[in-house]
Write a structure and sequence with these properties.
By secondary structure, the chain is mostly beta strands. It has one domain: Thrombin, subunit H (Beta Barrel), CATH 2.40.10. The protein is built from one helix and seven strands. The radius of gyration is 16 Å and the shape is globular.
């Protein structure tokens, strides 16, 4: 009997949209600028100048027509040595996206909100600053 091998691909449950946008990262100990490189309702990937340990709770703020704050948990981190400096890629799982006086918490609400703000993100992404170089 011939058994086909089941494809075990990407474990993400939603499509990730490639973006390039400044983001403010706030951890329990510090805050710094990063570049958000992809987004879905379930999470974000950022590129930043500092490593952040898995399981760390953090907030990632995207300033669009209004501020959207993603309350997240770090799932993975990967360091790359690029152009003579360390750059860290960090993948986070989004629990809540807060904005105005409300929030998106369910999988459906978060996915719908990301779809709604994608045009703003894409428009703003072409004007990113020097994220990752400043630390506060």
């Amino acid at each position: 009997m011939h058994m086909e091998k089941e494809f075990v691909g990407d474990r993400r449950s939603e499509y990730r949209h490639s973006i390039c946008m400044d983001a403010r990262v706030i951890t329990p100990k510090t805050s710094f600028w990063a570049v958000a490189t992809n987004i879905s309702g379930s999470g974000l990937e950022i590129q930043c100048p500092a490593t952040v340990n898995p399981k760390t709770k953090l907030m990632i703020a995207l300033q669009l027509q209004e501020e959207f704050v993603f309350h997240c948990t770090v799932i993975w981190t990967l360091g790359d040595f690029i152009d003579g400096r360390w750059v860290y890629r960090v993948g986070v799982k989004t629990e809540i996206i807060a904005f105005k006086n409300t929030s998106a918490a369910s999988k459906k609400e978060k996915a719908e909100l990301v779809q709604k703000i994608l045009p703003q993100i894409k428009a703003k992404g072409s004007n990113i600053g020097l994220a990752g170089s400043a630390s506060a």
